[in-house]
Predict the 3D structure of the following.
Amino acid sequence: MKNDNASPPARRGFLKAAAASGVGVAVLARPNVSRAQTVTMRFQSTWPQRDIFHEFAGDFVKRVNDMGGGRIRLELLAAGAVVGAFQLLDAVSSGTLDGGHGVPAYWFGKNKAFSLFGTSPPWFGDANQLLGWYHYGGGEALYTELLNDIVKVNAVSFMTGPMPTQPLGWFKQPIERVEQIRGLKYRTVGLAADLMTEMGAAVVSLPGGEIVPALERGVIDGAEFNNPSSDRVLGFPDVAKTYMIQSFHQRTESFEVLFNKPKYEALPAELKAVIKYASESSSADMSWKLQDRYSKDLLEMAQRQGVTVRQTPRVILDAQLQAWDRVTARLEADNSSPANGPFFKKVCDSQREWCRRVTSFFLRYEASSVVSFNHFFARQN
C-alpha cells in the first residue's frame, strides 16, 4: 500500500547524513490545508427567475460562495423549481430544500404574527428601522420563539434587505375614493390582506408569478407586488396603466434567508459566520442597488410604456391608518390560544416601544429632504 507520508530513500539518506555531520536542517511543514469536502446546499428563492428579487437572492448566494473559499456552495433555484413560493418554509423545515430566500409574510397562514416581522403596521419610519428593531430591539429573539416554540419548524432565519414603501398597486382606473375599495378584487399578502379586507376589498393572495395573468383575465381588479423593477419585468404595464404609489398597507418589509436548522447547525463556526455576514452585506448592497434600478424603471414605465403614476390620495391613506387600528386591536385581543393574541401583542408592544424612541429621534434629528430637494431641483422641473 502506498504511504504518501513516507520520505523517498534519497531524502532519508540526506537527513541521516546531515544529522550525522551536525548540520542544522530546517524542516518545512506541509501547509495546513483543509481537506474537508465542499458542503453543497440547494437554495430556492420564492421569486420568478426574471424578477430583481431573484437577483437579490443571487447576490446573497454569490457572497456565500465567494467567502466560503470552496468549503460551501449554494445552488440557487427559482420559485417552483422544487416547491411553490408559499411552500418554501415547509420545504426548508423538512429538509426537502437546504435553504431559501423569501419574506415572512408568505408564512402568514401559519400564524399572523409572521407578518409583523415583514409587513408590520406602519409605525416604523422605514424598513431599515424594522431591521434595527429586529437586530437590536428584541425582534430576533421573538422571531426565534415564533419559529421554534410556536410554529415548531426546523429553520433558522436571517432578516435582510430593507424594502421601500410599496405602492397601492396597479388598476384599470385610478383609486380616488375609499368607496372604490369596497368589493374590489385585490391581490396582497400578509397583514395587508387583513387590512384591505377591513376596508371592504375581496382579497386574493397570489405569489409573484401568478399576479399579472390573474389581472389580465379579470380574476382580480387590482394588485400590488412590490416595486417598479419587479412590476415592470413581471408585465404589469402590459395589462394596466394606472400605478398608484404611496400606501400604508405595506409601509415596511424585509426579506429573510432561511436554512434547515439541523443542516445549518452541522456547519463549522466559520461557515455559519459566512452565512451571517453574507446576509448583512447583501442587505446593504441591495439598499444601494435598488436606488438605481427602481428609479430608472419608474421613469421608463412613465415615459415609454404609457403608465400614469399617481399618488394615493390622503383620504385613502387616512382610512388605511384607521383600519390598521381596528385590525391590530382585534388580533391583539384574540385569546383563542397563547400563540395568537398574547404573542401577537407581545411583538406589537416591542415594536411600538422601539418606534416611539427611534422614529421620534429621526423625525426630530433629520432635516427635511423635501425642503432641500425643492430648493435644488424643483425649479428645474
In short: The domain at 39-163+252-292 is CATH 3.40.190.170 (D-Maltodextrin-Binding Protein; domain 2). The first strand starts at residue 39 and ends at 45. Residues 269-304 form the longest helix (36 residues). Residues 138 and 307 are 42 Å apart (CA to CA).
